[in-house]
Amino acid sequence: MGRSLRVALLSYRSKPHSGGQGVYVRALSRELRELGHRVEVLSGQPYPELDDGTPLTRVPSLDLYREPDPFRTPRLREFSSLVDVAEFATMCTAGFPEPLTFSLRAARLLGRRAGQFDLVHDNQSLGYGLLQLRRAGLPTVATVHHPVAIDRDLELAAAPGLRRRLTLRRWYAFTGMQARVAQRLDGITTVSESSRRDIGRHMGVPAGQVQVIPVGIDPSVFRPPADPAARESARIVVTTSADVPLKGLVHLLEAVAKLRTERDVQLTVIGSARPGGPAATAMDRLGLGDAVRFTGPVAQEELVRLLQTATVAAVPSLYEGFSLPAVEAMACATPLVTTDAGALPEVVGSHAGVQVPAGDVGRLGEALRLVLDHPSLQEQLGRAGRTRVLGSYTWRRTAERTADWYADVLDRQTAGATGGQRGC
């Protein structure tokens, strides 16, 4: 093992059990610590659940989007700085302030502790505060899971009416900041070759400056059921971190509605439907109230149980920068039906899932029917998925590659500084 590093790992929001960010910081911090590095997580609300031995520094915001009171109006006594004022004002004018305001708060906090860290690793906030850290002499890198501009474009394409599109453009205005910051950091990593290409296209960072480090799972936790008979007949499971067009949930609901005309199939959605959102509207339109169950947020143990007992897992997304839900299903030897969007073909490969064109409801239904009707195909896909995960997608491997990347970034900085001194 190389030198032990002191790392500040930043995450502007870290929902513990879904959405990816909380999962990422918990697993990466744990595995880096077990490799001998010192990692401190700094996070805004919602705060992550971390393993014993990993310190968490809370970076509180006004928490304007908390459940069950999103878009709330804070009391006057809650305002303590100009950053608080900017956060509230941005929300009131239909913008999303958290990436910027978190980065500014983190920069103020870390600026007083610069000597305690070798490197700052930001998880997708890409706010202007990161550039303050660089100016303070702290090497600063970031993970970009995928450019959020892709979410923006897909939501704009699905938005009804000019007013809604204008509101969405305002909400996603922070993506311009993220592109500018990404171009000026000391290093960028992403989770797939597909995302690396998209970062170049949407954020202007050359592919040669982006390191690909896939994320993973703990194969001792996400594992096949001890008894294969535990899998329920004709039950589909899907994990969705948000009820947005990007995740393709409406297409899956439409495919399930078609399947329901010929068989008794059940869909379990690990996640929630927004009142009046795309999924809730589709549920009413398709009459699926008795066929679909939304679990809301679930603990990891329940997530594993749901995957272990499903007949098939679906990933109907219109875009994925990686797809941790696909890897979690593969690790549980749950057969997959996925689209060909984004990084999914790269992550799933050619043997662990049946692939269909993104947005094609008919083909999605046919693929689900094929897997549901053929137990031998279920077994074949599940076995191939588990093998693929063990070879490529574990958190230990992610941490090892991330630590090597940190060392390369710091070595380049040292070489650059030495070269500059010789040139003086």
List the helices and strands in order: EHEEHHEHEHHHEHEEHEHEHEHEHEHHH
| CATH architectural label of the largest domain | 3-Layer(aba) Sandwich
Mean pLDDT across residues: 94
What's the domain count?
A: 2
Q: What is the overall shape?
A: globular
- For the report, how would you describe the main beta sheet? 7 strands, parallel
For the termini, the CA-CA separation is 35 Å
- The helix fraction, in percent, is 40-55%
CATH class of the largest domain: Alpha Beta
Strands, count: 13
Structural class by secondary-structure content: alpha/beta
Strand order across the largest sheet: 3-2-1-4-5-6-7
Beta-strand share of residues: 5-15%
Assembly type of the chains comes to: single chain
Q: CATH superfamily of the largest domain, called what?
A: Glycogen Phosphorylase B
CATH topology group of the largest domain? Rossmann fold
